[in-house]
Design brief:
Arc Repressor Mutant, subunit A, flat, transcription regulation, Tetracycline Repressor, domain 2, Tet_transcr_reg_TetR, mainly alpha, 2 domains, transcription, HTH-type_TetR-like_transc_reg, transcription cis-regulatory region binding
Length: 201
Amino acid sequence: MGRRPMIQRETVARAAIEIVDADGPAALSLERIATKLGVKAPSLYNHFSDKTEILAEAARAIVLETPGHGDVVDGDWVSWLIDGAVAFRNTLLTHARAVPLVVENFPRRLLERLYAQHCRVLDENGVPVERQMFIVESVHRMTIGSAMCLATGRPAMAAPADPDQFDAAVLATLTSGDWNDDRLFVEMMRAFLVGTGASEG
């Protein structure tokens, strides 16, 4: 029986994620990964052509952590899409320091498979074909954008630095505490999806 290789692609990807989670993307290097795994840096080239390929594998591993979110219930594809987007956003924010890495190295084939799956679900639930990719791509971009804002320290609906610029009523909404990033994301998504008109009977 053959020996299991000391280095595996998923092990390297996981080591890269752990380094970025702890110290940010700037800390990631082949030498740091190799040290973490107890091997020499050149041995990584037996499994990856370069650092870019390791980043892509790490991004893929993070994306695949997103849990499934079941089937559409009673034709409510809007809630189904929102639930999936929330799950993906939560996964990204579990690795907040790695969000830029995922954005820059998002595995294209995996993304295309997810898009195709989502289009099939929308089609099964009566969404016009000409709106399907528009909706799916927009949801993906809003999810990534929301995660990037929060991961880089830009909270939603925060009290302004210069409150005199705002009408008193608007300022009251900003300082009420009624809004946070999670609520803003869900309500933004729902407003967009209902506003597409694709959910009308």
